[in-house]
């Protein structure tokens, strides 16, 4: 039993290599074991490219060993023709007799059909090894398929006296609440999520690029609220450097292939409408970086999954109040000197 767990842990470790690059696909890792030895390994790198099982099978040198092997995979092998053929067929065609699955795929195109197909083909299938860890690994993918909305991370930095910015912004230099290390961490976080969102005031005040500069990785899709099209067209957010979706009450003609408008009714439930559109765009995760009002909207609608709050050393005495988040039951906390991580165990 202990060995089984180790192999699944290896699957999880391999899968994590895909953090930030597999969207809208999940991160998946796979290990093939024969006579107590790992003879093949693979992980899913990018949507449209081979799944973990394919990479694992391809890495096996002596394919004849597959007929007496066990394949471990952190997510149920797929049963459908998507951008790639079904992994179940691959397992069946190669005569792999034993399959150990971490967790069931929530994608309704699969959702148990992979396991069924393997059992019907006479495979010895075990399901649910390190299930909680396998679900946690793909928290974004699971939230997207089960709740039909992206996984939502709230991020802000506040002063010791609870402000996210002083009242009057200095024209010369921005006021930094956090240190260099936390700024770099934020860029790492950006590289891990599929999208990043800010409200109008933040876009106007900060003229942010919302890209990944202090870390290596993909730029997230930029989501910007601009109800009355107030953001100047020379703002960085209109630089066409990464895919950008502007939410407005009226779209304006803009000749940039990376920039699209989505028209919504700002007087109605804003967060819900917005998330429905993001779901339609197949966006599985979003980090909301401000401002206070935008973040508060999601808190008030109870539409968030994680909060990451930096506490700076400075005091502003007055300014823009940080969002208010009342901690309820069912939350896990992790606190370091200046960072508070809140994760909700919602099901
Ligand atoms: C697996 N192993 O490594 C992955 C799986 O369009 P496709 O063909 O890439 O299929 C995408 C779906 O396949 C994805 O939504 C998820 O349900 C499953 N992903 N399954 O067995 C993998 N990446
Ligand atoms: Zn597959």
UniProtKB/TrEMBL annotation:
It catalyses: 2,5-diamino-6-hydroxy-4-(5-phosphoribosylamino)-pyrimidine + H2O + H(+) = 5-amino-6-(5-phospho-D-ribosylamino)uracil + NH4(+); 5-amino-6-(5-phospho-D-ribitylamino)uracil + NADP(+) = 5-amino-6-(5-phospho-D-ribosylamino)uracil + NADPH + H(+). Its cofactor is Zn(2+). Substrate binds at residues 190, 206, 210, 213, 289. It holds the Pfam family dCMP_cyt_deam_1. Keywords: Hydrolase, Metal-binding, Multifunctional enzyme, NADP, Oxidoreductase, Riboflavin biosynthesis, Zinc. InterPro entries: APOBEC/CMP_deaminase_Zn-bd, CMP_dCMP_dom, Cytidine_deaminase-like, DHFR-like_dom_sf, Eubact_RibD, RibDG_C, Riboflavin_Biosynth_HTPR. The active site is at residue 53. Residues 2-126 form the CMP/dCMP-type deaminase domain. GO terms for molecular function: 5-amino-6-(5-phosphoribosylamino)uracil reductase activity; diaminohydroxyphosphoribosylaminopyrimidine deaminase activity; zinc ion binding. The keyword Membrane does not apply. Binds 1 zinc ion. It comes from the Bacteria. Its EC number is 3.5.4.26, 1.1.1.193. Pathway: Cofactor biosynthesis; riboflavin biosynthesis; 5-amino-6-(D-ribitylamino)uracil from GTP: step 3/4; Cofactor biosynthesis; riboflavin biosynthesis; 5-amino-6-(D-ribitylamino)uracil from GTP: step 2/4. GO terms for biological process: riboflavin biosynthetic process. Zn(2+) binds at residues 51, 78, 87. In the N-terminal section; belongs to the cytidine and deoxycytidylate deaminase family. PANTHER family: 2,5-DIAMINO-6-RIBOSYLAMINO-4(3H)-PYRIMIDINONE 5'-PHOSPHATE REDUCTASE, DIHYDROFOLATE REDUCTASE FAMILY PROTEIN (AFU_ORTHOLOGUE AFUA_8G06820). Converts 2,5-diamino-6-(ribosylamino)-4(3h)-pyrimidinone 5'-phosphate into 5-amino-6-(ribosylamino)-2,4(1h,3h)-pyrimidinedione 5'-phosphate. This is Riboflavin biosynthesis protein RibD.
């Amino acid at each position: 039993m202990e060995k089984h767990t180790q192999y699944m842990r290896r699957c999880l470790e391999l899968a994590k290599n895909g953090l930030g690059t597999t969207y809208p696909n999940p991160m998946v890792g796979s290990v093939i074991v024969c006579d107590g030895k790992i003879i093949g390994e693979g992980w899913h790198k990018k949507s449209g490219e081979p799944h973990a099982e394919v990479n694992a099978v391809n890495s096996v040198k002596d394919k004849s060993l597959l007929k007496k092997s066990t394949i471990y995979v952190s997510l149920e092998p797929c049963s459908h023709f998507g951008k790639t053929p079904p992994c179940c067929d691959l397992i069946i065609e190669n005569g792999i007799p034993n399959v150990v699955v971490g967790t069931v795929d929530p994608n309704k195109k699969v959702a148990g059909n992979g396991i069924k197909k393997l059992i019907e083909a006479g495979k010895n299938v075990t399901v649910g090894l390190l299930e909680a860890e396998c679900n946690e690994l793909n928290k974004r993918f699971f939230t997207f398929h089960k709740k039909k909305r992206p996984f939502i991370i709230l991020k802000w930095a506040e002063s010791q006296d609870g402000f996210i910015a002083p009242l009057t912004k200095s024209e010369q230099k921005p006021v930094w609440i956090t240190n260099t290390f936390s700024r770099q961490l934020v860029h790492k976080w950006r590289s891990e999520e599929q999208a990043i969102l800010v409200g109008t005031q933040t876009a106007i005040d900060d003229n942010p690029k919302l890209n990944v500069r202090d870390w290596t990785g993909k730029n997230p899709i930029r989501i910007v609220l601009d109800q009355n099209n107030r953001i100047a067209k020379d703002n960085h957010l209109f630089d066409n450097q990464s895919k950008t979706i502007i939410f407005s009450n009226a779209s304006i003609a803009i000749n940039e292939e990376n920039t699209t408008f989505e028209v919504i009714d700002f007087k109605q439930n804003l967060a819900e409408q917005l998330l429905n559109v993001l779901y339609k765009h197949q966006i599985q995760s979003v980090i909301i970086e401000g401002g206070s009002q935008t973040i508060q909207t999601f808190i008030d609608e109870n539409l968030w999954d994680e909060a990451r709050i930096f506490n700076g050393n400075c005091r502003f005495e007055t300014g823009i109040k940080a969002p208010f988040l009342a901690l309820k039951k069912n939350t896990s906390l992790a606190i370091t000197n200046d960072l508070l991580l809140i994760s909700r165990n919602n099901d």
